[in-house]
From TrEMBL:
Gene3D superfamilies: 1.10.30.50. Residues 73-129 form the HNH nuclease domain. This is HNH nuclease domain-containing protein. InterPro entries: HNH, HNH_nuc. It comes from Fimbriimonas ginsengisoli Gsoil 348. It comes from the Bacteria.
């Protein structure tokens, strides 16, 4: 995996973890500890089309990228695809006491990387917290350590 990547951020993406600074740093540290060759890494990420410019058909796919899609990109794609901006359960249109209320994005099957249109819906915070899939997260550092050990 390290051999095929040109940056530590790319390694993070291949491992399926959010490529933030600390994660990339940890991967670099483990690569050195395990004696993995990183001399081919250029440090320059590959240029890719901004997700904010992609059509909703390209964004709303299962496992399009190995990390969570940003909320703003998902929200835009969902609205453009015709999903109404209202809570699926109570019908709240994104307003509370006369003020705007940001609706959550609910992944119906609980897989936060499954962004297919039929797996997404808007939910007000109250209704979202009542769903069986609310708050499911995976510890990214545990995932990194497990994958690094497996591929070392």
């Amino acid at each position: 995996m390290v051999k095929e990547s040109t940056t530590f951020v790319e390694v993070c993406e291949r491992l399926g973890v959010r490529p933030n600074g600390i994660t990339a740093t940890l991967i670099g540290r483990y690569a050195r500890e395990y004696g993995l060759d990183t001399s081919h890494m250029t440090g320059k990420p590959k240029v890719r089309l901004s997700a904010s410019r992609l059509s909703w058909e390209k964004v709303l796919q299962a496992h399009r990228i190995p990390r969570r899609e940003t909320v703003s990109v998902l929200r835009r794609a969902m609205i453009e695809s015709g999903i109404p901006y209202a809570c699926f359960d109570c019908g709240n249109p994104g307003e509370w006491r006369g003020k705007p209320l940001a609706l959550d994005i609910d992944h119906i099957n609980g897989d936060q990387l499954d962004n297919r249109r039929e797996n997404l819906r808007f939910a007000c915070p109250n209704c979202h917290r009542q769903t069986s899939t609310w708050g499911r997260t995976i510890d990214p550092f545990a995932a990194v350590l497990e994958l690094v050990d497996k591929h070392a």
